Inverse folding.
C-alpha cells in the first residue's frame, strides 16, 4: 500500500511488507511523484521566489544606499547646496513614482519579466556610476544619475510584485 505523496515537492515515500528486520519503509528523495506536473510547477515557482528574493535583497540594498546618502554625497563631494541636493533626491523619488506605473504597465503585457528586471538592475548600476562621476565631471551628472536611478532601479518593486501576483497561486 502506498502512502499519499509528502507535501514537500520531489519526495516520495511508501510502506511495504516488512523485509528482514526493517519495517518495510522505503523512501526516495528527489524524484517527482508519479511525474506530477504540479510538483514540477511548484518547484519552478519556489526557484522563482528564491531568485526574486535574492534580487530584491540586492536591489533594496543598493536603493537604500543611494537614497540615504545622495544628499550627503551631493553636498560634501559634488559641492551642491543642501537645497539642490535635496531637490535631486526628490527628483529621484518623483521619477520612481512615475516609472513604477510605466514599468508595471509595460511588463504586464510581456510573458516574462526577466529582461526588464535585468535592465533595471544594469541601468541602476550605470546611474550609480554617473552619480559617482559627478565628483569630477560636473554636478549635472548627479542629476542625470538620480533621475535615471529613480526611473529604473527604484521602480523594480512594482515589477517584482507584478511577477509574484502573476506567478503564485492564490492561497
Amino acid at each position: 500500500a502506498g502512502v499519499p505523496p509528502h507535501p514537500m515537492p520531489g519526495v516520495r515515500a511508501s510502506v511495504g511488507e516488512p523485509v528482514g528486520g526493517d519495517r518495510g519503509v522505503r523512501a526516495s528523495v528527489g524524484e517527482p511523484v508519479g511525474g506530477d506536473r504540479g510538483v514540477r510547477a511548484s518547484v519552478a515557482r519556489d526557484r522563482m521566489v528564491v531568485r526574486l528574493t535574492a534580487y530584491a535583497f540586492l536591489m533594496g540594498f543598493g536603493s537604500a544606499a543611494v537614497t540615504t546618502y545622495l544628499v550627503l554625497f551631493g553636498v560634501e563631494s559634488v559641492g551642491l547646496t543642501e537645497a539642490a541636493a535635496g531637490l535631486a533626491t526628490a527628483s529621484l523619488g518623483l521619477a520612481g513614482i512615475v516609472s513604477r506605473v510605466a514599468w508595471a504597465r509595460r511588463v504586464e503585457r510581456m510573458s516574462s519579466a526577466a529582461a526588464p528586471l535585468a535592465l533595471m538592475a544594469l541601468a541602476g548600476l550605470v546611474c550609480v556610476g554617473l552619480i559617482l562621476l559627478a565628483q569630477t565631471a560636473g554636478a549635472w551628472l548627479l542629476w542625470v544619475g538620480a533621475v535615471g536611478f529613480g526611473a529604473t532601479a527604484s521602480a523594480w518593486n512594482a515589477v517584482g510584485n507584478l511577477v509574484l501576483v502573476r506567478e503564485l497561486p492564490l492561497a
